[in-house]
Design brief:
By secondary structure, this protein is α/β, with parallel strands linked by helices. It has helices at about 20-35, 50-65, 105-110, 115-130, 145-165, 170-175, 200-210, 225-235, 255-270, and strands spanning about 5-10, 45-50, 70-75, 100-105, 135-140, 180-185, 220, 245-250. An 8-stranded parallel beta barrel has the order 1-2-3-4-5-6-7-8, surrounded by 6 helices. The chain binds phosphoenolpyruvate. The site of phosphoenolpyruvate has 13 residues, from strand 8.
Length: about 270
């Protein structure tokens, strides 16, 4: 059976100091090397997203000590501002050569930092202009909502972010050319221990693809662990509801839990 490419992202948020992030990256790389000894490589793209302060150290470790494993890194955010006199900011161009991708629009930043869709759109534009791949988080807070309501909320978020990016001259075509990935992350599922059902995630993925007008890669994120991972990845393939990968928060802070998710992904990808 043809193997399908999957993307698994570990979002470590601000949970660990840089030294512990480096140690965890090393454990994951070692575990992945053991998995790759018995399975085909390049079916799964693994990206680790450490804190900004740990990003360089983690990237350096992976390149220096584990170059054959092919684990990449993602930044958890980038600034809406350009290079210049902006104390404390991290312009996207500064991430070039360090991160392979940048997460943008995570619901924690929207909630805790007041990031509007317009700001998310501006960040998207900066990331694309820097030549980096954006992983755009979209999510609803409609735990009891229906499929239509959820689809409308996601579509509105996408349209507003797109307008924000357009304000800086980056359009839909440029976003797609940059390899845009969308992570469907229902706000009510993140860190709650109550993941969405695969059917909800799949319907959301179909709605996002319809709204974007492209068969782009879509991840699911929200309380994923090894035992639930495969069900998301096995979801509908016929009507745009395919889930291509996972954005993992809490469970990525343990090498064994995260490696378990990769094992489940590998099985789902090979149809076993
Ligand atoms: C996240 O914050 O992106 C996330 C998916 O977290 P968790 O897996 O802990 O729900």
């Amino acid at each position: 059976m043809t193997q399908q490419r999957r993307i698994i992202v570990a979002n470590w948020k601000a949970n660990l100091p840089p030294g512990e992030e480096v140690a965890l990256a090393g454990e994951i790389a070692t575990g992945l090397a053991a998995q790759l000894a018995t399975t085909a490589p390049h079916v799964i793209e693994v990206l680790l997203a450490p804190s900004h302060v740990g990003l360089v150290a983690v990237t350096s470790l992976l390149r220096r000590e584990h170059p054959a494993i092919g684990i990449g890194t993602a930044a958890q955010d980038a600034s809406a501002t350009e290079v210049g006199a902006h104390t404390g900011e991290s312009p996207a161009t500064h991430l070039v050569g360090i991160a392979d991708a940048v997460i943008v629009g995570h619901s924690e930043r929207r909630r805790e930092r007041g990031e509007s869709d317009a700001i998310v759109g501006a960040k998207l534009a900066r990331i694309v202009a820097a030549g980096l791949r954006p992983i755009l988080c979209l999510g609803d807070d409609l735990i009891d909502g229906g499929e239509r309501e959820r689809a409308a909320a996601l579509s509105n978020q996408w349209i507003a972010a797109l307008a924000g990016a357009a304000g800086l001259g980056v359009d839909r075509t440029a976003l797609l050319a940059a390899g845009l990935v969308v992570a469907y992350e229902p706000v009510w599922a993140i860190g709650s221990g109550r993941p969405a059902t695969p059917a909800i995630a799949s319907a959301a993925a179909a709605a996002i693809r319809a709204s974007v007008g492209s068969d782009l890669p879509i991840l699911y994120g929200g309380s994923v662990d090894a035992d639930g991972a495969a069900a998301f990845l096995a979801s509908r393939h016929d009507d745009g509801g395919r889930i291509d990968g996972l954005l993992v928060g809490g469970a990525s802070l343990s090498a064994s839990r995260f490696l378990g998710i990769i094992v489940a992904t590998r099985s789902a990808a090979s149809g076993r």
